[in-house]
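Field reference: "sequence" (input) and "structure" (output). Example, Family 43 glycosylhydrolase:
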Amino acid sequence: MNASKYIFALVAILFSSLTKAQEIVPETYINPLDIDYSYMVYNSANNISYRSGADPAVIEYRGEYFMFVTRSFGYWHSKDLINWEFIRPEQWFFEGSNAPTAFNYKDSLVYFAGDPAGYGSILYTDDPKKGEWTPTASISNNIQDSELFIDDDGKTYLYWGSSNVHPLRVKMLDKDDRFLETGVKKDLINLVEEEHGWERFGENNFHPTLKEGYMEGASMTKHDGKYYLQYAAPGTQFNVYADAAYIGETPLGPFKYMKNNPMSFKPGGFTNGAGHGVTVKQTNGQYWHFATMALASNSHWERRLCMFPTYFDDEGLMYTNTSYGDYPLFGPDHPTKAGQHTGWMLLSYKGKATVSSSKMQVRKSTATDGDYDITEMPLEKNSEGEIISKLLTDESPKSFWVADANDDKQWVEIEMLAPGNIYAFQLNFHDQDSEIYTRIDSLRHRFTLEISEDGKNWKTAVDRSNSYEDAPNAYITLNEPVKAKYVRYNNVKVPGNNLALSEIRVFGKGLGKKPAKVKGFMVTREEDRRDASFEWEPVKGAQGYNIRWGIAPDKLYQSWLIYDKNEHFMRNLDRDTKYYFSIEAFNENGISERTEVQEVK
């Protein structure tokens, strides 16, 4: 081979390697988080069995992370904030912790509190991975729904409160004397629903009789010398469950309402809610807000966990990015886009799903009176006699399909509306009469996923037929994208008496055009200034729309993702705040250009 041919061949090899390198799928995650959620003891007397994860307390300790979750009989450990391993401690509360709090004091000790009874000792350890905890000798009342915060000077504060009447409070403790109370106790903040629309009780901040939201879930973050007292409202079962913050110069206040509240808010899309959480600083300096999402299908207390990147802007305002927050997001170690949307879109929306059998199919949603709207769907078959399930691709985690059995004869096949390059899957299993009321470590989700371009020739994309993973919200990425129009789930064995699924979600990049820019976007502040109505011209080929708003043109920190509709009504604005709005359309191929920002006084 002469020199020129050798150079040409070398360049070709390098180019081929570079092309392949560009196709390597980055590390990503999705909300709700893919962890082995525990079964709850709530409602066990009523034989209602379901998993839940709520009220997370996450700390960094000696370069690693620990996550404490309500009633989980233990806690989780991670080195990267993505992969979590459950730890069953040797000493713990009988029914698990309730609305836990944890604090890492100068990498020397981890302190923890969360007795379900509302009182008890504060525990501590210098080896949380081992799971040996020591209780303090003193008893401290009002531990429930609390936040333990130890300032740099060693002064210790306990914030608490869970009520639709009483405020959040704080009391000082003596860390060096068994956490005895020092006598300093103070009322801090309460809800002001007549000014803050998002604090109003109910689904979409509406309830026909109850007007007072619940204030709970205190959390404290110190940043740049300021103290950010966070709280949740208006109720954990609602799509508008959110976290907000007041800012103070000292841990005792006085505190001032942050004008861009709520700072963690996710009312639209597949999974809703982003309240009762905690903000933790990653070892690289990036902040993350862990919070609670409302699944609320088997029970209003059925919940999941989420994680969003968190920032402080030039005014010291704290905010999270929840936009497309239940789509695949770049992992925490991404150098420039940690927690941001990957650009992988939903390929499976309204895909034609057929199933092996059907014991029942139920469409369910949270009603404004705190109950459910429930519709059991009639058995429907296509022209080939196959059973149809429209609920598995409807982007609702509350609706679900239940198979006749839980064996390897059960399957789901989805024909997507158009082919695309698949990057990832999310399988959301449903608990139907599981009859489990505690944590069981031997549960497994075993299945395979196949893909096809024509519905006839199939190849295996995912094989978990012998998996030891318990993954009720399994998130699976492929090593490289694969073109397909059909996806097939083949069951082997999952927890429960029957295979049940609420949603199969397929993510990737469509092969068509992204939608055009939205036209005719109109925003109207109502007579009640906490409310606003929206309308716009429908965009051809759009799956849905993403409304963005905020307190300044460059501070559109809030968003609300909507499928299909070209109108919307929200009740979550602050009465006396001027807002700016924009909207974009999206489909399986991408996201449109945003509209010009509108000022609405």
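Residues 364 and 374 are 5 Å apart (CA to CA).
The first strand starts at residue 28 and ends at 29.
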